[in-house]
Amino acid sequence: MELVVDGVPYDDEGQAGLERFYTDVLPAAKSPPTSVAPTPGDWHEAYGRAFVHGDAVLAITVSGTLSASLDSARLGAELALERYPGRSVRILDSGTAAGAQALVAVAAAREASTGADLATVVGRAEAVRSRVRLVAYLDTLEYVWRGGRVPRVAVWASNLFGLKPVMEYVNDKPNLIARPRTRARAMQRLVEDMRKHVGERRTHVAVMHAAAGAEAEELRKRVAGEFDCADIFISQFAPFMGAHTGPGLVGLAYWPE
User: Fold this and answer.
1) 214 in a structural domain
2) Do residues 134 and 251 make contact, with C-beta atoms less than 8 angstroms apart?
3) Under a CB-based contact definition with an 8 Å cutoff, are residues 233 and 253 in contact?
4) What is the per-residue pLDDT across 104-121, written as a single tens digit (0 to 9) for each?
5) Which of 4, 98, 128, 144 is the most buried (most CB within 10 A)?
6) Looking at the structure, do residues 224 and 189 belong to the same domain, yes or no?
7) DSSP state, 130?
């Protein structure tokens, strides 16, 4: 992915420079950032690198409603199969993004590492896709408003009352599920949401944040202490996602076994 802010491109590959992006670049932006999906050529090259290690490739993309990456992946696959006859490519729309997409990809990769065939790996990814959930709270609605996703009055009300909107991403669209007035209550809402959906089941978890590392680590510790976690990891939002949510976001993605 590539993000363009006031004419300057920011590559989403890697974590270098993310703090400066959230503290300096994004707040000073004069116009809403625009994102650019990988080109079919980018996908073609990626498939070629993957074919060095096997004859079949599964590409798991960010939700097709959020990015043109899915269409580019399909066109890139056509190019790759012309160049590499006898190989296979399957493309799966994750139907989600960020840590939730990562959990789908990790589950598929683990299945592949056992020597499973492509159909089995795809089946595993589809099963996790149907169970994974993504919830997060925002520090402000300002950046969502800049992208044209909420009216200005919502930003005004949120700032006036100090609200920290809690959002879910379900069925390929974001929904507002709570309006707590403090970040502590917002974090508690994330934990309660997870408890409601996973109960006592063993669960795979991803903690996400945008320039809110201390709070994300606090959330990770809470989740690790209160739930039966098969695994749990923490990562910062890359610019492609964080540009539309702003700094201060903290979120959870999870799926129960």
Assistant:
1) yes
2) yes
3) no
4) 999 999 999 999 999 999
5) 98
6) yes
7) T
